[in-house]
Amino acid sequence: MSIRLIVLGSGTSHGIPMIGCDCAVCTSDAPRDRRPRTSVVFSYDNYTLLIDTPPELRLQCIACDIRRVDAILFTHFHADHITGLDDVRRFNWIQGGPITLYGDEPTLGRLQRMFPYAFIEDPDYPSAKPELNTTVLDGPLELGGRRVIPIPLMHGPLGVFGFRIGDIAYCTDCNYVPDESRELLRDLDILVLDAVRRRPHATHFNLEQAVEEARRIGARRTYFTHIAHELKHAETNAELPAGMELAYDGLVCESD
Q1: Are 237 and 245 a contacting pair, CB within 8 Å?
Q2: What is the pTM of this model?
């Protein structure tokens, strides 16, 4: 069976439109110029794997008709990738059981400090809360019968993870791909890669750098994500090389 990747959100930490901004992208009527915070879902073999829990998670799941989450992988602990965690309690109710979170130790530690009520038994807590387990991510693992390969990346000085399942890889929030990680990205059908804006950025690939890195990796199709308000969707796509384009919310990719 094929692996499906669904883009839930494709925007930067501010989200697009940004608060109080009147630029051409933030005021655009084009649906693909609207970008909540970045996240994706891998779906395969009746298994659904969520990558990160951004602030708009509830709205993203409604928009993309996500009805199940079997496990959650975290790329890193920045706020735009974790602060929607409480929304996963709805999936606990639907599925009737806990959900396991996978991440490195700093990320799981940050989640436990930000959402302490979700990780402790407290009979006096008056409201429903997520039911969660945690597992430290330290190498490839099998989830839903498929091999999940963490891809070490650098996000400025911070080590983060991308993920590969089959011939699809998701690499957001990065500005450097180590040689050994590039080896893990060989022979891809689909690559989703960070490309924040045109100007240089201290912790993200800009568009020019992302195109160069995409050429090195050599996936058959590349989609750029974590996009700021400097990149208008249609105009930017018109100038990108063949086989490369901006991702957008609701984009569905499939690979065998």
Answers
A1: yes
A2: 0.96
What pLDDT, on a 0 to 100 scale, did the predictor assign at position 256? 80
Residue pair 133/101 in contact by the 8 Å Cβ criterion = yes
Burial class of residue 70, CB neighbours in 10 A (0-12, 13-18, 19+): middle
Residue 31: cis peptide before it, omega within 30 degrees of 0: no
What distance in Å separates the CA atoms of residue 186 and residue 84, rounded to the nearest whole number? 32
193 and 171 Cβ atoms separated by less than 8 Å: yes
DSSP class of residue 97 equals S
H or E element in which residue 103 lies: strand 99-103
What is the domain partition of the chain in residue ranges?
3-120+128-246
Starting at the edge strand found earlier in the chain, the sheet holding 168-171 runs: 141-143, 146-155, 158-165, 168-171, 190-194, 221-225, 244-246
Q: Helix, strand or coil for residue 151?
A: strand
pLDDT one-digit tens code per residue, 30-61: 999 999 999 999 999 999 999 999 999 999 99
Q: What are phi and psi of 3, to 5 degrees?
A: -100, 135
CATH match of 3-120+128-246 with 1.10.510.10: no
Instruction: Tell me the pLDDT tens digit for each residue of 202-239.
Output: 999 999 999 999 999 999 999 999 999 999 999 999 99
Q: Look at strands 252-255 and 244-246 and give their pairing.
A: unpaired
Distance CA 239, CA 11 (A): 20
